[in-house]
Design goal:
Elements lengths: L9 H13 L4 H37 L14 H38 L7
């Protein structure tokens, strides 16, 4: 590092030199910062590659349609066909129930926002 020659009091010279030195980064600090930045770039590159692979995998999965569960064959066990029918009806009923519950909670939230129910955060 280049040193300036300052005429004057030694205290003033030390103060001036410390002020100038504090404004600049030392070579070891600069090297460490460069190594850290390079490491971060490499980590980000790995993450981007992993994300691209995941996007490609999801696109391939979306391109191939999922096969719906086939109903049991008519020649199969009648108990299995009945169980499948009951399971399907139950799933549809539970789905409808959950949708209705969601509508109820949305209505309650809307009503409480209009009325400004005490004790509720706005």
């Amino acid at each position: 590092m280049m040193r300036l020659r300052v005429l004057g009091l030694s205290r003033l010279r030390r103060a001036l030199l410390s002020r100038l030195d504090s404004r600049y980064v030392t070579k070891p600090d600069h090297r460490r910062d460069l190594k850290d930045a390079l490491w971060e770039v490499q980590m980000l590159r790995r993450e981007i590659v992993a994300l691209r692979d995941e996007v490609d995998r999801l696109r391939r999965a979306a391109a191939t349609p999922a096969k719906p569960a086939a109903a049991p064959k008519a020649t199969a066990d009648p108990k299995a066909a009945e169980a499948h029918r009951l399971a399907t009806e139950t799933a549809e009923a539970v789905d409808t129930l959950l949708q209705n519950e969601m509508r109820i909670w949305q209505a309650i939230d809307d009503l409480s926002a209009r009325v400004g129910a005490p004790g509720r955060a706005r």
